Amino acid sequence: MHFSALCAIISLLPLVAIAAPHNSYSWVNPSTASAINAAAGWSTTSTAVAVPVPTTTPGTVSTTLFTNVSTTASTSAVSPADTSVANNETFIAELFVTAKAVDRINKFPNDASFKFDFKNPPAGTVAKGKGGFTVRSDRKAFPALIGTGGSISVGFLGPCGFNTPHTHPRSTEFNLVTEGTLQTQFTLENKARTIHNTLATYQMTAFPQGALHTEFNPNCEPATFVAGFTSEDPGVQQAAETFFGFDPDIVEAALGNDFTFEDKDVDKFRSLIPENVALGVESCLKKCGLR
């Protein structure tokens, strides 16, 4: 084989890896997987956080690629992330009062403190519902972010999974689809038009800071997205929970007084609001046999 031909083949290998579908693995973390799988009916066949297993058969190339990735990740050659400083308020406070970045870095116990494992995340970082779950890495869960000005979350949506309308009060969100398809909507403010998009794998969109937005998986296969934030602590506020958290008379007035609420009525509405990530919409649920 000529050297030039060999170089051409080598140059294409990253593209083969990128093009391979992310549908040949399943992660199960005992601390979170049982509830997720019981609610969504997903398979649990390996280790770490549960990722829905699609019914489609992956190609030979992708099976080989992702089998190797999974095997490599499970060997002792790859050190685990150090979560000893995660959620450690005393340590985090110490980092905030350290004037120089070089001194702040030197306070971390080891190099693995700068690694975050979305398959085995620290406690309190998983938000789960019947339609999937999200894993966040903000500066509380991952103190190595302090001083960087950014953070990341990963969303795993099952068939018809619905990340219910919400805002991030302190950050813009850059949403990149890494598996499947997402339908997205956002509205920036009053009188602004609603922006609708359908994102295929490796397409992205941006949700401006404070904009009410949502993501929905319209298909019967799983979808995965990576959300980048322009804040170490972007925050999140679900719209429905916030609205029905107001006093009953405020809720009634906001709805034009066409509804009469007593405290028990509002409590009933609150109880009907699904945990995020939810299942929806009705047409998708019927299509995928979930209704």
Strand order of the largest sheet: 1-2-3-10-5-8
Main sheet makeup: 6 strands, antiparallel
Q: How would you spell out the order of helices and strands? A: HHHHHEEEEEEEEEEEHHHEH
Low-confidence stretches: 3-33, 35-75
Structural class: alpha+beta
Radius of gyration: 21 Å
Helical coverage, percent range:
25-40%
User: How many individual β-strands?
Assistant: 12
Shape: globular
- Mean pLDDT score: 79
**Beta-strand residue percentage:** 15-25%
H/I helix tally: 9
In oligomeric terms, what are we looking at? single chain
Distance between the termini: 57 Å
Explain what the structure shows.
By secondary structure, the protein is of the alpha+beta class. The chain is 28% helix and 21% strand. It has helices spanning 3-19, 33-40, 60-74, 89-96, 101-106, 239-243, 248-254, 263-272, 282-287; strands at residues 126-129, 132-137, 151-157, 161-167, 173-179, 182-187, 195-199, 204-207, 212-216, 223-229, 237-238, 278-279. The strands form two sheets. A six-stranded antiparallel β-sheet has the order 1-2-3-10-5-8, with helices on one face. Strand 1 and strand 2 form a beta hairpin. The longest helix has 17 residues, at 3-19. It is globular and about 60 Å long. It starts with a helix and ends with a helix. Residues 3-33 and 35-75 have low confidence and may be disordered.
